[in-house]
Design goal:
About 30% of the residues lie in helices and about 20% in strands. By secondary structure, it is an alpha+beta fold. The relative contact order is 0.14. It is globular and about 45 Å long. A 7-stranded mixed beta sheet has the order 1-2-3-4-5-7-6, sandwiched between helices.
Length: about 220
């Protein structure tokens, strides 16, 4: 014998959601980010920020896959080393959530410095944060390596524009470091076969250089 229960009326009832979802990025509709969250803090990274390395790596990879562009991968261990050595900058929103990151590397006995790994959390893109991080990592490079030429390899038009505003100029690949360790980093990029087929003289990335002697 079936027992028939009367239907339950949920109208007018409120079911509260959890107030927070730890370690989850919050995506705001139509980029309607609360104004108070746009008060970013950008600082030189230190050992206290190692906690964020996994999220940085995951966001960098997913961003490259979404754009269908190449990426020179960096291991979590290498980013941890950059952070511990004070060769990275990290950004946070006013609520403490991670917002962006970038790091520097030196080559050929500090003759060259690269600004790399610029990434902004999806919910904070199109806010001008990338430009602020780019300037901060540039200033850190000039502070730590005042005599070094700073170079950038990128396929992104936005990064090219930011580089140009900082005084970078397009150059040929022959003006980049010859350091084999530097070029080893390109092997994790999907465009590496193109680079190697052209004997490292060209690829899909645009090479740009800031020469302090011309500043």
């Amino acid at each position: 014998m079936k027992l028939e229960l009367p239907p339950i009326d949920f109208s007018g009832k409120v079911f509260p959601l959890p107030t927070s979802f730890p370690n989850k990025a919050i995506l705001f509709p139509d980029n309607q980010i609360p104004e108070e969250l746009l008060d970013f803090t950008i600082e030189v990274a230190n050992a206290n920020h190692i906690f964020w390395v996994k999220e940085i790596c995951d966001t960098t990879l997913s961003s490259a896959l979404a754009r269908g562009t190449g990426i020179s991968g960096r291991s979590p261990e290498s980013l941890e080393s950059k952070i511990k050595n004070g060769e990275a900058v990290i950004a946070f929103a006013s609520d403490g959530s991670w917002a962006g990151f970038s790091f520097i590397s030196s080559w050929e006995n500090d003759k060259y410095v690269s600004n790399s790994g610029l990434i902004v959390a999806p919910q904070f893109r199109h806010t001008g944060l990338a430009k602020r991080i780019k300037r901060k990592i540039f200033e850190l490079s000039r502070q730590k390596y005042p005599e070094a030429s700073i170079f950038s390899l990128t396929t992104g038009l936005a990064v090219m524009k930011m580089n140009h505003e900082l005084g970078f100029e397009p150059v040929t690949y022959s003006e980049l470091p010859n350091d084999e360790v530097f070029w080893e980093n390109c092997k994790s990029c999907v465009n590496c076969p193109i680079l190697m087929s052209k004997e490292r003289k060209n690829c899909l990335c645009t090479a740009m250089l800031y020469d302090p002697k011309k500043a």
